[in-house]
Amino acid sequence: MMELEFSTLISYVIVVLGLFLLPGPAVMLTITRTVQSGRKGGIMAGLGIATGDFVHTLFAAVGLSAILMSSAFAFNIVKYAGAAYLLYLGVREIIRKPAGWQLPKVESAGVVKSYLSATIAEVLNPKTALFFLAFLPQFLNPERGETVVQLLILGFIFVLLSVLYTTAIAFSLSAFGKVVRRTAWIGRLNRLSGKFAGMIYIGLGIKVAFQRQQ
């Protein structure tokens, strides 16, 4: 039996791809590793980030499923709290004034260190954990089957898209590291995509307010 509706999966993929347009820490780290350590360094950093995201998915799946089994009311509280957090993120992205953009400073590293450092950084990032707890429940439907399975499917899709996206970045930028270092085009993209991502966050937040009014 399908645990998630096809339309839900399509909507989820579109939203995730939209969020990837915002150059966050994961994108910045991938760019930096590519510039400093070449294509392999960037790819391994992206794989490390994806590994960290999968760890957060596992924690979210276990925690949210436990909440659902204890009380449907408690699970709804989690969903609405997550929606409120997404609304906050959306408003913050829209009104914020980005500071001057620059690549983060990290030491040049081999492929193994690039992978491990990115994994550890992502696993230990509390903002990532909070984001997954707020984001993933917005696409769940407890009536469609096991919540754990749904969360793992959503998490796996997120991780797969993340790997494809960061790998594409590494391939695209590996030959243009010096150009990227000396130009501000990513800074302008950051400002524009921040507004776009903000609207996505807000859209997800208000989605909860209407989906149960049937």
TrEMBL record:
The keyword Transmembrane applies. It comes from the Bacteria. It is found in: Cell membrane. The chain crosses the membrane at residues 6-31, 43-67, 73-91, 112-136, 148-171. This is LysE family translocator. InterPro entries: LeuE-type. Keywords: Cell membrane, Membrane, Transmembrane, Transmembrane helix. It is a multi-pass membrane protein. The keyword Membrane applies. Pfam families: LysE.
